[in-house]
Amino acid sequence: MDPFSAQGELLNLHNAFHQGQYNAVLAFDTRSLSAENRIPARVLTLRARIALGQAEDVLAELEGGEEEPDFVAVAAFAHFTSGDSEAATKAIDRLLAEAPENTTVQVLGGTILQGVGRSEDALTLLAKHEGSLEAVMLVTQIHLQQNRTDLALKEVQAARRWAQDSLLVNLAESWVGLRVGGEKYREAFYVFEELAQAPSTSSPKSFLGQAIAEVHLGRLPEAEAALQRAMEQDASNADIIANAVVASVLSGKDPEELISSLRDKSPGHLLLRDLQDKSAQFNQAAAKYSPRAAA
Fold it and tell me: In the prediction, which pLDDT does 76 show?
């Protein structure tokens, strides 16, 4: 039986992780789990700790003593999260040769490879999955980043046929909906709002999803309110701060304080790199023109 299916014993742990309820993951009692599910449960627990900013602690726990491909992949992801892309890709490249069929290797390896710009290598690795909804989510994200909404939609539609009621499929479908637009904006909003408002599923991540949907619907005050709720729960989350920057600009407010906070929390964040690139392009274009003296 798939441990992440509706009948599987890891369903609640798995859903809590993907809802961004990382403290709930750490509090989950894994003592009664069957032997075959203890490794995937520990992997989710370690990933939750990394998400909570404990990557260095996870590395200290894993390095030198763990040879299971799952835990080597988690250690590589901890390196990547800590900014050591070289160590992360070196470990993943080794795992590609040794354990490419391992689901944890596929998901975390695909995440790292995409993060360092090796999208095709990531997709090749993820194509080896056998019924992993997390792999489906990651493939969907990669296609959206490639501006291939058609391929992302195809991926989600295929998964919907064999995992109809899955949280992960609902999330992936909502991401695609935010790119497709129109009525899909509203459908995505309802998914994120339901997660954000229910006490059993509420998290900074769900409020962030709700805020992004609100922005697309043109409801900026509501978006800012959702982002505020997210920040109250996780003030150091770089993605929340980055989206607060966007909402602030769209609302005509000065984003400099938020941008400064983002630089402190995540100097290499995609939004900051994009702002730097756009500034360089503007300066390059402006340099082609010289001011004309008034007559």
Answer: 96
| The predicted structure's pLDDT at residue 196 | 94
Question: Token pair for residue 18?
Answer: 């993907």
Tokens matching residue 221 = 């005050």
> How many CA atoms within 13 Å lie on the side-chain side of 227?
23
Rounded to whole angstroms, how far apart are CA atoms 71 and 163? Answer: 27
* Short-list 222, 206, 225, CA closest to 214: 222
Q: Per-residue pLDDT tens for 54-75?
A: 999 999 999 777 789 999 999 9
- Angstrom CA distances, 235 to 125, 199, 215, 227, stand at 34, 19, 20, 10
Look at residues 172, 176, 171 and name the one whose alpha carbon lies nearest to residue 192: 171
Dist. CA 177–CA 167, nearest whole Å: 15
Contact 71, 87 (CB under 8 A): no
- pLDDT tens digits, residue range 178-211? 999 999 999 999 999 999 999 888 999 999 999 9
Q: What b/e string do you get for 160-180 counting C-beta neighbours within 10 Å, with b at 16 or more?
A: beebeebbbbbbbbbbbbbbb
Alpha helices (H) in the chain, listed in sequence order: 11-18, 22-27, 38-51, 55-62, 69-81, 85-98, 103-115, 119-126, 133-145, 149-162, 167-180, 183-197, 204-216, 220-233, 238-250, 256-265, 270-286
Structure-token pair, residue 130: 């056998």
Residue with tokens 């995505």: 188
Instruction: Count other Cβ atoms within 10 Å, centred on residue 274.
Output: 11
Burial class (CB in 10 A: 0-12, 13-18, 19+), 294: exposed
56 SS3 class: helix
